[in-house]
From TrEMBL:
Classification via InterPro entries: FAD/NAD-bd_sf, FAD/NAD-binding_dom, FAD/NAD-linked_Rdtase_dimer_sf, Pyr_nuc-diS_OxRdtase, Pyr_nucl-diS_OxRdtase_dimer, Pyr_OxRdtase_I_AS
Pfam family, any one: Pyr_redox_dim
Disulphide bridges: C43-C48
Keyword Glycosyltransferase set for record: no
Positions of the FAD/NAD(P)-binding domain: 7-316
Positions contributing to FAD binding: K52, G116, T140, G141, S142, D302
PANTHER family membership: MERCURIC REDUCTASE (PTHR43014)
Family to which this protein belongs: Belongs to the class-I pyridine nucleotide-disulfide oxidoreductase family.
Keyword Transmembrane: no
Keywords associated with the record: Disulfide bond, FAD, Flavoprotein, NAD, NADP, Nucleotide-binding, Oxidoreductase, Pyruvate, Redox-active center
Cofactor: how bound: Binds 1 FAD per subunit.
Protein name (record): Pyruvate/2-oxoglutarate dehydrogenase complex dihydrolipoamide dehydrogenase (E3) component
Binding site for NAD(+): G177, G178, G179, P180, V181, G182, I183, E184, G262
Length: 470
């Protein structure tokens, strides 16, 4: 059996693992990267990339139906579902070289394509090899959860790992789960000509601001997506049409079933207990520095048991690299933006209104700016949405946006909140006209307007100065 000694062993070649491996290798560390599945992990192969490619095709199809107000005759698009999936596959293939084994070997990383299993606090068994490392990073990602619903084992179940391989258009897609994945797939498939029913056990988009999520859900319903809230799936049965799902007093019959009911960290094969790594129901237990109960071992991304975002995994990589390579104290911050890529998009950074009211009470001010107030939105005929700004003591504490390109707009606020900027900084930024981000500046300015224009003291001071100034 071959024994490999290295400075750093990274387990998992998804976003977090690849970022750690690339950064460490380029800074001179000896790095071993372990991956049994596809390089690039879930994000490239079954998550962010294919879903956004599918959404782009669906958006193009919907645009053909809705251009009438712009003076262009709308038409019902002819959709080649298999060709749409070819577009998805091409998108993955175009990005794959950046995450490939060849690229990482070119950086000096030794890549082992097999499952890894801890056999001691400092050793990982990888096939017929044993890797001994000064430090390990668990970056194994997560897997979709298929809930134990009676009868679900008797039907074919699609998850995000399998739905993008489907080349024949479903007649009726039933989706169990009303979170971002379920809602994105609902809108994409509906726009591509599929009848869609979403079953949300409590509320759809439950982690977002209800006022903003209502805008998105209203759009989906207007486009023909049926969304059942407060109706958990109680039973699944095969039937001549495909599948039947019982939810509340409804029996929904569909041709295909997609389960988007959450994810759990993928740790089954790793045997973290053999390394003295403590694991909870949420994932690997880590401290603010992302270190586990074994000081040799760190965990990043979905494996670390927190929020499950690709950009968070990449950020985690930067945190652990500082600690592993330079011995510097480094802690993960909590201000992580997230986006649901529907149309309109739904973005959030910091506190929602409900969270801000609970934390700041009477000191909170909530400012709302409708997207219809944007000249750019008016020019493009896309005026549905809202920017909501939460302010306490003159500083932004949270921003919720439902708007076209909300995922791009939230970047300004991510920078502001991360840097602790005052609201006056955002209000004073000069932005190009016409852009949607003017809405963000307008929201910031709305905080100061009543203080300036409704103040008798300011008015008196201005009139006095006008008499005194030459």
């Amino acid at each position: 059996m071959e024994r490999i000694e290295t400075d750093l062993c990274v387990i998992g070649a998804g976003s977090g693992g690849l970022s750690v491996a690339a950064g460490a290798a380029q800074m001179g560390a000896r790095v071993v990267l372990v991956e049994a599945g596809d390089m690039g992990g879930d994000c490239l192969n079954a998550g962010c990339v294919p879903s956004k490619a599918l959404l782009a095709a669906a958006k193009a199809a919907q645009a053909m139906r809705t251009v009438g107000p712009l003076g262009i005759r709308p038409v019902e698009p002819e959709i080649d579902f298999a060709a749409v999936k070819d577009h998805v596959a091409r998108t993955i293939a175009a990005i794959a070289p950046h995450d490939s084994q060849e690229r990482f070997e070119g950086l000096g990383v030794r890549v082992l394509r097999d499952w890894g299993r801890f056999v001691s606090p400092a050793e990982l068994r990888v096939g017929e090899r044993t890797v001994t490392a000064r430090r390990f990073v668990i970056a194994t990602g997560s897997r979709p959860v298929v809930p134990s619903i009676p009868g679900i084992d008797r039907v074919e179940v699609l998850t995000n790992e399998t739905i993008f391989a489907l080349r024949e258009r479903p007649e009726h897609l039933v989706i169990i789960g009303g979170g971002p994945v379920g809602i994105e797939m609902a809108q994409a498939h509906r726009r591509l000509g599929v009848r869609v029913t979403v079953i949300a056990g409590h509320k759809a988009l439950p982690k977002d601001d209800p006022e903003l999520s209502a805008i998105v859900l209203g759009r989906l319903r207007a486009e023909g997506v049926e969304i059942l809230e407060g109706a958990s799936a109680a039973a699944v049965d095969p039937c001549p049409e495909g599948i039947a799902v019982t939810a509340g007093d409804r029996r929904i019959v569909g041709s295909h079933l997609l389960v988007a009911a959450g994810r759990r960290p993928a740790l089954e094969r790793l045997d973290p207990a053999a390394a003295g790594v403590e694991v909870t129901a949420k994932g690997v237990k880590v401290g603010p520095d992302l270190r586990t109960s074994n000081r040799r071992v760190y965990a990043v991304g979905d494996a670390a048991g927190g929020l499950q975002f690709t950009h968070l995994a990449g950020y985690h990589a930067s945190v652990v690299i500082r600690s592993i390579l330079f011995g510097l104290p480094s802690k993960a911050a909590a201000l992580i933006p997230h986006v649901t890529y529907t149309e309109p998009e739904l973005a959030q950074i910091g506190l929602t209104e409900a969270e801000a009211r609970e934390r700041h009470g009477s000191r909170l001010e909530v400012l709302r700016v409708p997207v219809s107030g944007s000249d750019r939105a008016q020019a493009e005929g896309a005026t549905e949405g809202l920017v909501k700004l939460m302010v306490a003591r003159g500083r932004p504490v949270g921003v919720s946006i439902a708007a076209p390109h909300a995922g791009e707009m939230i970047g300004l606020w991510a920078m502001a909140l991360a840097s602790g900027a005052k609201l006056s900084t955002v209000a004073g930024v000069v932005l190009p006209y016409p852009t949607l981000n003017e809405l963000s500046k307008r929201a910031a300015g709305a905080y100061f307007s009543p203080r300036l224009f409704d103040s008798r003291l300011v008015g008196t001071a201005v009139r006095t100065l006008q008499r005194l100034l030459p």
